[in-house]
Amino acid sequence: MVLNTDRSLETQAPPFRADQVGSLLRSERIKEARLQLASGAISPKQLRLIEDTEITRIVERQKEIGLQAVTDGEFRRAWWHFDFLEGLDGVEAFEAEEGLHFNATTTKARGIKVTGRIDFTDHPMLEDFKFLYSLAGSHTAKMTIPSPNMLYFRADLKDMPYDDQEEFFHDLSKAYKKAIKAFYDAGCRYLQLDDTAWAHLCSEEQKEQLRAKGLEPDKVRATFAQLINDAVADKPGDMKITMHICRGNFRSTFMFSGGYEPIAETIFADLNIDGLFLEFDNDRSGGFEPLRFVKRPDLQIVLGLITSKFGELENPDDVKRRIDEASKFVGLNQLCLSPQCGFASTEEGNLLTEEQQWDKLRHVIAIAQDVWK
């Protein structure tokens, strides 16, 4: 079934009433081609041509089902964050001793370290975006990158060539300013910062772990906000920047739990961004009460009420009731709907089929059409 995009779903600018986080399940052809590259059967150039074909297909599929914002599904990436961060000057990848731990599994081993001065110059993802932009047509090409907090929180910093942390933060923010301008110059008007670091502040257990590392949660929270605000300080007026706050997404598992109350005042009042994609798909995310701190009439809240972790479709009436609950704290005109996360934050992907993925996105659109008539 093809759903036509009704004008009732439109907002003046992104995020849209029916939106998506960004990553999509890698196709079997992409997975096969990655294995062929690793074995030497094909060249990097041949892999890129295969990626071009598969990205073209999934962009057209996004248009067909009625999404206004289209992504490349992160089809050229293995990780939602490492691939971008490794492309920054002064950052190197290495094989870590172990992978990242989720509640029921562990990722493959991978790490990044800061070995030089941080900068953004000839980043390969600029060409990735340009290809997406060439396919978007009248739709909005959405680019997703990790927030600057992810380099601060995920990278090995012990050998970085900085006299103090503030100098590092200055270069990191400056690099992101350059990245934002470069994507803007390439045609990007919708950029999303993906961030799992905030989840470390959402539960007492995680905050105790921070303290055990010698970090004070209140100072960490202030640093997160300052890094993002410094990064977006020179954002062009016609570019929309949103942030997705995630609790971990790997093979349908999660990393963190906890509601937004500990960070609510900061993310809703202090961040100079245009919208927030928030996970509300289960009890781990808490209730809507933290939305009472939303005071800005121009801040869009994207409710992640449709899970990307399994294929069963949510009862649409239940989803509508939850949107109604959220609207008690934030007016309906400031709310949007999306899946709670991407479908493949890493190349392994979540445990559902590609058709179930498209059904989930159709579900978002159909519910949004009923709510925002």
From TrEMBL:
Question: Protein name, please?
Answer: Cobalamin-independent methionine synthase MetE C-terminal/archaeal domain-containing protein
Q: What domain of life does the native source organism fall in?
A: Bacteria
One GO-annotated biological process of the protein? methionine biosynthetic process
NCBIfam families referenced in this protein's UniProt entry, alphabetically: PRK06520.1 (NF005085)
A Pfam family in this protein?
Meth_synt_2
Domain Cobalamin-independent methionine synthase MetE C-terminal/archaeal, first and last residues per copy: 20-347
GO terms for MF: 5-methyltetrahydropteroyltriglutamate-homocysteine S-methyltransferase activity; zinc ion binding
The species this protein was found in = Pullulanibacillus pueri
What gene codes for this chain? yxjG
